[in-house]
Write a structure and sequence with these properties.
homodimer, alpha/beta, TIM Barrel, 4-stranded parallel β-sheet, 13 helices, 24% strand, globular
């Protein structure tokens, strides 16, 4: 049976309040699963293959709970409007190009390569409405070695003609096509864009398909005040935005669901999120760029809601989950200062937890080095950042994340026990 | 007379509302000064030495109006408290080490090297209370090739014993010592830490020295509610925080002055800032990390106040002024959303302007490629970031800044016409 050990400084957050760290230790992988941490190898493991990363930091892989692959091409551009205008001006214009499979292959090739070199080991991804392009995206994510859910987007209203469908027929075909490709790492997910983009009849069809194939769901929820108002107009019978999904069985319960943003979720919506076991993808960078606001993450955590982080490229400017960790802390401080002084800012440990075990839970046991967790790991060489003083391991981790060492400090990345990336160090 | 041209895609903001751009053009430097931009070289310049940067972007150098050199060692760490606690827990603890000149040389060596490789061509820098360490810092900044003001900090109260002075005597000696070193790029600046740290008699002495040597001033202003309250207690006779400096001639007028933060400046304080011609160093990253808040930059710009950007390391986690540009935009959106819906968010052009010509004005004519400006330039190779679509030059610039290409995309940097850094491209 294939097994090995990584040796280095091991850090992870088994719970949100604690960074556990083991200097110069071994973390064991058997097949694709984490089998414990040892300070010295026990006898039965003394012949194990040890990959020694010296003084590097070894942390669990990170989950991006919300990213739009077709928007990666225009990340960091067009940051001059709010959500609904931004969709029309930038997002839809770019997404229409993915009708062309050559363009899709080129653009998604760049995306998949960047994901491979990022801190992300698992991702929940929006494609476009195009079936073929989305299958190309799935092929590329499979090759990149990242575990992912990938969705063909659905829209049948409030979208340009070339992005508007008349039914969910293509989605059904997409689900069947993707099953035939027998991916190991890549899974389809039902992806209504958001309520403003989906008629009741489309939601109904998606609900059918979801149930028939027992698929998970991703969408957007209560991101922007204008959007929330629009949903009220479009589906007056819904008690609140999230109820619009729930009426169609697309909001947790038996359907594993992740909703991005939840900046403006009412108390009733928050309760339903918790009751239905919906994951919240917190996307602080995007929520700043689109002037959406700040999601009340402290409240969600205290309520026991499942929360992870999302880059939300290209509302977010970067795929960096390191960046999402620090953005989440920073906006939580502004939330505390200006909106609710009873909402304690997120600690570093908490935000690191959201990026690893928090978001990872959408994939089952992922994002931790506890026994039985799938073995996703990042090796970070922070020796490239000199310092004059002694630093503890938690200090080194905090510094690596704040400085954004995922850009040039990740020297190896493991997903389900397989090394998918190793940097040629200069 | 020494002259040369840089060839490439030239972009700059002669005013805050406009990004001027010249594809494949020449910007001329004569001795240390910018002498115009040409699409084709005129006859009298046809023999000029042309350094061809191909398809790279060429932009003016950036000014960091507020950075603490001794805090660079702990940037990105200890982000768990507000200003006054943070000073005692982290800043003062680290700064005390600079009594040891060996430590100072090592730590400041790392700092100066990072500044050299950053987007910053000009900086206004805090040292510590230690004269010798601060002179070492000046030596290193001179060698790094950055134009800078460097201040020996003054504190005689509300500080640990080993950082508390009894008079400004060491500052007088510091000013004299620095004059003897005959720096070309490096200048001293009067640096009362902040009102909570300086008694009236210390301010009085500093005022004397400032006047005698005609020196500029840097300090902190209205960063945090607790700090503002403390100033009211400590100097009840002052009309507002800024008036405490103004009473001692340390707040603009004949004393060129930059004040960091101004998050909580009252209307009277804002008026005085404008009337006295004080520069505001906007430090959005630090203001998030220390949960200080969001400075009303739109209001300051509209009032005609001089504004530039500061990294405020280590309240800020990074020396990146690219990052400060995007942080300033992002927090201005949250300010608009939550605090004042009449305060339009900053545009990209505006924030880029603050980082270049806005802050550069503290040094005279700096931060632009207009005729007569000192020649500071960055060459950015954004070809390392692939994209599937055509991009305009302003789009490429926005992307480079948002993605943070100062980390690995700056291939050459010029200060006052001299190349101080060239990356060995792999």
């Amino acid at each position: 049976m294939k097994q090995f050990a990584l040796k280095g400084n091991i850090l992870f957050t088994p719970n949100k309040d604690e960074i556990k760290f083991f200097p110069n230790a071994y973390v064991i992988c058997r097949r694709d699963t984490c089998c414990g941490i040892y300070m010295t190898l026990p006898d039965e493991l003394r012949n194990i293959n040890v990959i020694d990363y010296g003084d590097s930091l070894i942390v669990p892989g990170m989950t991006d709970l919300h990213i739009h692959a077709p928007q990666y091409s225009f990340r960091g551009m067009g940051m001059d409007c709010e959500l609904l205008d931004w969709l029309n001006k930038y997002a839809f214009t770019e997404e229409a190009k993915y009708a062309d499979t050559d363009y899709a292959a080129r653009a998604y090739g760049i995306f998949a390569d960047s994901m491979k070199r990022s801190a992300t080991t698992r991702a929940v991804i929006f494609g476009t409405v195009h079936r073929e392009a989305t299958l190309i995206l799935m092929d590329l994510m499979e090759s990149a070695g990242i575990v992912s859910y990938v969705g063909k987007v659905n829209m049948d209203r409030n979208a340009p003609d070339d992005l508007r469908e008349s039914s969910a027929a293509e989605t059904l075909k997409f689900i069947r096509d993707s099953a035939q490709r027998k991916y190991h790492l890549t899974m389809p997910i039902i992806t209504p864009r958001f309520i403003p983009g989906c008629s009741n009849s489309l939601l109904d069809e998606l609900s059918e398909i979801r149930r028939a194939y027992d698929l998970p769901v991703q969408s957007h929820l209560s991101e922007n005040p204008g959007e929330v108002e629009l949903v009220k107009e479009l589906m007056p019978e819904a008690e609140f935005y999230g109820d619009a999904y729930d009426r169609y069985g697309l909001f947790g319960r038996e359907a594993k669901t992740v909703m991005a943003h939840c900046v403006y979720s009412s108390d009733s919506e928050t309760k339903r999120i918790r009751k239905n076991g919906v994951w919240v993808a917190h996307c602080p960078n995007s929520n700043m760029n689109l002037a959406s606001g700040i999601a009340p993450i402290r409240k969600y955590i205290d309520a026991g809601i499942r929360v992870g982080l999302g880059s939300d490229v290209a509302g977010g400017q970067t795929e960096s989950i390191f960046r999402a960790i620090t953005d989440a802390i920073q906006v939580s401080k502004l939330y505390w200062r200006y909106i609710d002084s009873s909402a304690k800012p997120l600690s570093f440990a908490e935000s690191f937890y959201l990026a690893t075990k928090g978001g990872g839970s959408f994939f089952g046991n992922a994002g931790s080095f506890e026994q039985g967790y799938e073995f996703d790991a990042l090796v970070i060489d922070d020796s490239i950042i000199p310092h004059p003083q002694m630093l503890s391991l938690p200090e080194r981790l905090e510094r690596a994340i704040y400085i954004g060492l995922d850009k040039n400090g990740i020297t190896a990345k493991y997903v389900r026990g397989k090394k998918i990336y190793a940097k040629i160090t200069e």
